[in-house]
Amino acid sequence: MHIDWAALGSVFGVSLVTTVGLVGLFTLGIVGLSKRESASAQGGSATLAVTGAYVCFAACAAAVAYGIFLIVGK
Predict the structure, then answer these.
(1) What per-residue string of b and e applies to 1-25 under the rule 16 or more CB within 10 Å gives b?
(2) pLDDT band at residue 74 under the 50/70/90 scheme
(3) Please, are residues 60 and 24 in contact by the beta-carbon 8 Å criterion?
(4) pLDDT in tens, 9-27
(5) CA distance 54 to 59
(6) Vertex 51, ends 47 and 54: CA angle to 5°?
(7) Which parts of the chain span the membrane according to its record (predicted)?
(8) Is 58 in contact with 28 (CB distance < 8 Å)?
(9) Which of 22, 29, 39, 62 is geometrically suited to a Cys-Cys bond with 46, CB 3.0 to 4.6 A?
(10) By C-alpha distance, which of 67, 61, 50, 66 is closest to 25?
């Protein structure tokens, strides 16, 4: 049995970077939504933070949908 270590390392690296990126993007969305709560408590508006949070969540959903598309195929 022959293991292609270069391919295995490549898959591991891409998976690690993608996972860290998605978790970071989701975290930015959570932070954006928390800015809305703190701004409303102070009587302000955090429209930009909420819009950015929704964009982050949409990007996460798009990445997950693309991953499912890659797995399921045509």
Answers:
(1) eeeeeeeeeeeeeeeeeeeeebeeb
(2) low
(3) no
(4) 999 999 999 999 999 999 9
(5) 9
(6) 140
(7) 6-34, 46-72
(8) no
(9) 39
(10) 61
Q: Read out DSSP for 9-62?
A: HHHHHHHHHHHHHHHHHHHHHHHHHHHHHHHHHTT---HHHHHHHHHHHHHHHH
CA 12 vs CA 6, 9, 15, 17, 63: distances in Å:
10, 5, 5, 9, 18
Rounded to two decimals, the pTM is: 0.80
Dist. CA 74–CA 45, nearest whole Å? 45
d(CA 57, CA 32): 10
Question: What residue type is assigned to position 12 of the chain?
Answer: F
